[in-house]
Amino acid sequence: MLSEETAAVVTSMLQSVIDHGTGAPARLRGFTLPAAGKTGTMDDYMDAWFEGYIPSLAAGVWVGFDQKKTIGPGMTGARAALPTWTDFMIGATRGRPVEDFGSPLGTSNRDICAETGMLATEACPNVTTEIFDEGSEPTEYCTAHPGRPLQTYRRAAPMPDEDGGKPDLRQLDRNDRARAKEKIHTW
Ligand SMILES: [Zn+2]
Question: What is the pLDDT of residues 41-50, one digit of tens each?
Fold first, then answer.
């Protein structure tokens, strides 16, 4: 069994896989709900997996032959299995309310540079919000993209001229949760 905190931290990492990583083709294909997942690719492309979940539904897709045989060059989990997973999830969740993953007490959110895993600065091109066990948050700001510390979670909303004028709604939602939690802790 995983602790609630560990599960939340791992889910947050796996959300980044879908939002920014090897699972990102699911977003391009039109699956927009908060989701977490991971690709799997075997040596010589003999098996391809995608395992992913939303709070109330988990699904895994495996592509391969019964025999130990390659399914084809370049057939990664993202190319071979992810499209099937994405289409299934779109169909299975159609018309259902949006569910978000909770962040339990004992964890905290930080804006992280997706390239270095360090605290994000305003110069980081690709920023993601990650959940950490309290006390295990990174403390050093990104050294690959030097700049002023990014502290989006302290402000109400991105200014219209920042972020290309298009606020990331999911980001805002997570920031609101982080703020609500900070209040709880302050009281
Ligand atoms: Zn950076």
Answer: 988 999 999 9
Boundary residue ending a domain (93, 120, 151): 93
Residue 156: per-residue pLDDT: 35
The answer to whether 128 touches 150, Cβ cutoff 8 Å, is no
Sole residue written with tokens 């007490």:
105
Count: domains in the chain: 2
Residue 170 lies in a domain: yes
User: How many A from CA of 113 to the centre of ligand 1?
Assistant: 4
Indicate the residue among 40, 60, 93 that finishes a domain: 93
pLDDT at 167 over 80: no
Tokens standing for residue 180: 């609500």
Task: Give 144 Cα–ligand 1 centroid separation in angstroms.
Answer: 5
Instruction: Indicate if 70 and 141 belong to the same structural domain.
Output: no
Task: Give residue 145 CA to ligand 1 midpoint distance, Å.
Answer: 4
DSSP state of 3: -
Give residue 21 CA to ligand 1 midpoint distance, Å: 15
Residues 18-42 have pLDDT tens digits of 998 999 999 999 999 999 999 999 8
Q: Which domain holds residue 68?
A: 4-93
Q: Which of 156, 58, 158 is nearest to 99 (CA)?
A: 58
